[in-house]
């Protein structure tokens, strides 16, 4: 059958192809084949490769030079007082008992506009190290590490109560529902050890951290990126060991059957990220049975190391155990470890700040200094970023005569290791410690700085949610690059 120069195809008339048309279209087609191969091989999050689903927690490199490989975030929940710890204000004592001068403005707290008399600071202050960083007598052990600290005195946040403040310091937003910083790091960089969680959380005491697991949740991202909570007890990971008499082969067989059933359910019901995360958690739990017992076995540590962290001493035993576990985890490739001191807003000193902060500083000072010393001695501090701080600071004014209220307009955090230049003080608050007035760093800037030190661009790390590009710092924030010196 002969064909005319113009023939019908699916009801549509097309002109005959010239040789030039054929070569142009064929060339484009071969280019598409190459693109398809690249897409199949890609290791982007959630992608599928030629060998099947790509591991979403596979170790990745960020687009920027990385100075840190992992993070240990020491979260003092409740709001430690910067003007009693790292930011001395002689004028506060000079004006004690008086109303704050109009020239310093006011601070808005959860109780509204706050205008009580100024509360003097009873601490003794001293400069430490060759750098001369000011630290109060509440933290003598951390003071001994002054030359490793970058003390940021000009932090600001938006949350004026604990729920909003803790939420923002963890997720960047005062409103719950967004992924935590640890989840973003897990999403962007994965983890270097596939037999341990990428993101681990520990807390002291029996009370719950305010907002609970939402602080380390993955928000709108797949649940595989959420934090895994372990306990600083003799059995940090509950139910990890298989029942007596059950072999690895039996465990593997049960898991394979369970995964088969779960996969069938997932195929029948379409996209199901929670189920995918559950399947991944079963697989991780199986792998952890081989490696995790060693990772959390503090019996393998020398007595000298335990004493360095304050273990064996009642005030420091619990947080010391947490800090030592954190070192063992980052040593094994865990990407992000977060430790909560004062779980349940215990640092919230609305009254009796002397008793409150004395107790909590005593519980954390030696363990934190021990962590820094131990990381440094093992050559781990140079690529482990340690961050210290709470959701906000406290006011110079008194509350209930002996305490201080919340202050999100100017407070202190510090960073050490991970490429950070130690022995420096960044930014400043006004003469009474009420407002940040120099080099103000919002929570978004702090998060951007942490990500930048890890080699991640906070504006380039994107997760598409409902067609909208979401970023860890809500399209704001710039890294403070001077922190590396």
List keywords for this structure.
485 residues; two-stranded antiparallel ribbon; Alkaline Phosphatase, subunit A; 23 strands; alpha/beta; disordered N terminus; 9-stranded mixed sheet
Q: For the record, give the distance between the C-alpha atoms at the N and C termini, rounded to a whole number.
A: 80 Å
Please, what is the CATH homologous superfamily of the largest domain? Alkaline Phosphatase, subunit A
Total number of strands: 23
- Identify the overall geometry: globular
| Structural class designation | alpha/beta
Here the CATH topology of the largest domain equals Alkaline Phosphatase, subunit A
- Give the CATH architecture of the largest domain: 3-Layer(aba) Sandwich
């Amino acid at each position: 059958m002969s064909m005319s120069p113009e023939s019908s195809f699916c009801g549509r008339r097309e002109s005959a192809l010239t040789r030039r048309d054929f070569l142009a279209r064929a060339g484009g087609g071969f280019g598409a084949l190459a693109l398809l191969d690249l897409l199949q091989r890609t290791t982007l999050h959630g992608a599928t490769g030629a060998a099947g689903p790509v591991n979403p927690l596979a170790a990745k490199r960020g687009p920027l030079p990385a100075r840190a490989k992992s993070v240990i975030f020491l979260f003092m929940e409740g709001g430690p007082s910067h003007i009693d710890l790292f930011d001395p204000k002689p004028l506060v004592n000079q004006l004690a008992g008086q109303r704050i001068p109009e020239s310093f403005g006011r601070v808005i707290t959860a109780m509204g506009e706050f205008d009580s008399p100024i509360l003097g600071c009873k601490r003794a202050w001293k400069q430490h190290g060759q750098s001369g960083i000011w630290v109060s007598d509440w933290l003598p052990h951390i003071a001994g590490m002054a030359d490793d600290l970058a003390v940021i005195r000009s932090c600001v946040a938006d949350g004026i109560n604990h729920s909003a403040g803790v939420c923002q310091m963890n997720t960047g937003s005062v409103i719950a529902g967004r992924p935590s910083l640890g989840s973003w790091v897990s999403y962007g960089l994965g983890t270097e050890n596939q037999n341990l969680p990428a993101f681990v959380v520990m807390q002291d005491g029996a009370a719950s951290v305010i907002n609970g697991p939402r602080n380390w949740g993955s928000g709108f991202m797949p649940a595989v990126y959420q934090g895994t909570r372990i306990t600083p007890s003799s059995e940090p990971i509950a139910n990890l060991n298989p029942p007596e008499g059950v072999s690895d082969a039996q465990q593997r067989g049960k898991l394979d059957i369970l995964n088969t059933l779960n996969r069938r359910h997932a195929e029948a019901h379409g996209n199901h990220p929670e189920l995918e995360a559950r399947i991944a958690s079963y697989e991780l739990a199986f792998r952890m049975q081989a490696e995790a017992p060693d990772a959390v076995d503090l019996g393998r540590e020398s007595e000298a190391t335990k004493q360095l962290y304050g273990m064996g001493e009642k005030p420091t035993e619990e947080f010391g155990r947490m800090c030592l576990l954190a070192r063992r985890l980052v040593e094994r490739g865990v990407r992000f470890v977060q430790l909560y001191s004062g779980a349940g807003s215990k640092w919230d000193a609305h009254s009796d700040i002397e008793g409150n902060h004395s107790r909590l500083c005593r519980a954390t000072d030696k363990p934190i200094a021990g962590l820094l010393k131990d990381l440094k001695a093992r050559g781990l501090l140079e690529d482990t970023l340690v961050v210290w701080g709470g959701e906000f600071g406290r006011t110079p004014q008194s509350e209930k005569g002996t305490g201080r209220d919340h202050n999100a307009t100017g407070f202190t955090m510090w960073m050490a290791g991970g490429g950070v230049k130690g022995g420096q003080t960044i930014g400043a608050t006004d003469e009474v410690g009420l407002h940040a007035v120099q080099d103000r760093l919002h929570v978004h800037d702090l998060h951007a700085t942490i990500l930048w030190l890890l080699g991640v661009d906070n504006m380039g790390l994107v997760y598409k949610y409902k067609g909208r590009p979401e970023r860890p710092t809500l399209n704001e924030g710039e890294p403070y690059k001077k922190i590396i010196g």
